[in-house]
Amino acid sequence: MKRSVSNPHQKSETITQFIISSYIFRFVVSLVTMSAIYILLSIIYGMVPLESRILTSVKFLGLGAIFLFAYYFFFEKYEKRKVDELKLSLLPKSFSVGFIIGCIIICGSVLCYYLAGAYRIDNVDLGTFIISGFAFQMFIAIAEEILFRGVIYRMIENKAGTVTALIISSLLFGFMHIFNENATLWSSFAISIEAGVLLGLAYRFSKNLWMPIGIHCAWNFLLGTIWGLPVSGMSMGRSLFISTYEGPQWLTGGDFGPENSVPTVLICIIISIVFISIKINPNKLIKIKEKQKNKLSSIKGKKESNKIIIQSN
Description:
Layout: H1 8-21, H2 23-47, H3 53-78, H4 91-115, E1 119-124, H5 129-160, H6 162-176, H7 185-206, H8 210-226, E2 241-245, H9 249-252, H10 262-278, H11 282-312
Antiparallel strand pairs: 1-2
Helix pairs in contact: 2-3, 2-5, 3-5, 4-8, 4-10, 5-6, 5-8, 6-7, 7-8, 7-10
């Protein structure tokens, strides 16, 4: 009898091929690549100081656009698929809906603080810093949503399902902020609950990144540049409204800001429940309405035919 002799080189090649083809390897490569691009863009940002706020705005928006293109072309080539989550045709509607949701969350939170006597406007400051503030928050929203929803959430969901993807991506997103100034374990967990889950659901039901980008951008922009409140423990400098913000920590979030407060957490939980219950997706909502109309018309048709049969009898 002939004995088969195993070739160690073939075994090593097989193991290497298995590792390269494994989902975990592709996940790590994707995350490392996009993180490296983000770090590179941040370095470029620091190397190009601009005094003009308009030019600074162009720089931020340009860096955001580069990051979007990098994501699109990387996954188009690496995963050999159409990158439908960045379809330009979905941008106007999805981003607008997301931005409105973000405005509802932050304005609703500020209203709670105002009614409780914890927030008041002392003065108004107008300037071009509002434009550069929006551009900066747009870049941050694009970068973080690409990393946490475009890479982490999407790739985990494809392999392990929605619930697992929501839990992991939300916790990673929340506890990424543990290194921020005035951060605590509760503030990081609060961000996981309020923002991590909500943004994950926004991506899940809209099937694109534009909606979570819109929510994220409006959230940070209104919080820091408009209402003058801390964004994840950090001051954004000048703001439209110069305000006084003080009260019990459970209400205001203390030095970390509204993301650490009970009202913001509750508002986000309510909106997340709405997402789950009606699955906010314009296309799906249209299809549901059409199905309901078809059912109603078929029921009416059956009733009319029954009436005709009764009358004939």
